[in-house]
Amino acid sequence: MWPAMASSDGLPETARAPSALWPGVSLAGTVVIADQLTKWLALAQLAPYQPVAVAPGLNVTLAFNPGAAFSFLAASGGWQRWLLSGLALAISAYLVYWLAGVSRRDRLQMLGLAGVLGGAIGNLIDRLYLGAVVDFIDVYYGEWHWPAFNLADSAITLGVIAILLSVLRDSRSCRK
């Protein structure tokens, strides 16, 4: 459910489960730690832009992305670092607010919000300290390579999917 909307579980506000804020923030913190640890390992063990084969279709390749998803704004001269950092901070603050309004019973939405929050903060840390996001997962088929990504990007993607599924589930239950 979106923040400030009535509960779809049919219970009065006083009967609802406690907020998902602390479990969600804790999970987001776990995502940040795992993301930063994997990036630290990539920085320590990999040479930039030198692929290391892991399995067919999977390399680890240290790359730096000063832009947004798919290197959008990457060649913009540096101002994008601050714009994207500001957006990440604003979105993170809103996600914390949203989490505070979610019931602990809504695990799918809590997981989704926590994934997006943790991923946004993980990439924000890179952007603030390094000026670019560290990417290292390189998935490919033949000569075609998906843009390199990291654990934070994966958490954001899976989080958005979980949020969409939660909203879809809630909209279907409201129609019944």
From TrEMBL:
Q: Which UniProt keywords are given for this protein, alphabetically ordered?
A: Aspartyl protease, Cell membrane, Hydrolase, Lipoprotein, Membrane, Protease, Transmembrane, Transmembrane helix
Active site as annotated: D135, D153
Cellular localisation: Cell membrane
Show the GO MF annotations: aspartic-type endopeptidase activity
EC no.? Answer: 3.4.23.36
Record pathway:
Protein modification; lipoprotein biosynthesis (signal peptide cleavage)
Give the GO cellular component terms, alphabetically: plasma membrane
Q: Which InterPro entries match?
A: Peptidase_A8
Task: Give the bilayer topology.
Answer: Multi-pass membrane protein
Enzyme superclass (EC): hydrolase
Q: Which reaction does it catalyse?
A: Release of signal peptides from bacterial membrane prolipoproteins. Hydrolyzes -Xaa-Yaa-Zaa-|-(S,diacylglyceryl)Cys-, in which Xaa is hydrophobic (preferably Leu), and Yaa (Ala or Ser) and Zaa (Gly or Ala) have small, neutral side chains
Q: State the source organism's domain of life.
A: Bacteria
Presence of the UniProt keyword Transcription regulation in the record: no
Record's keyword annotation contains Protease: yes
User: Which function does this protein serve?
Assistant: This protein specifically catalyzes the removal of signal peptides from prolipoproteins.
Matching NCBIfam families, A to Z? lspA (TIGR00077)
Q: What is this protein called?
A: Lipoprotein signal peptidase
Species whose genome carries this gene: Spiribacter salinus M19-40
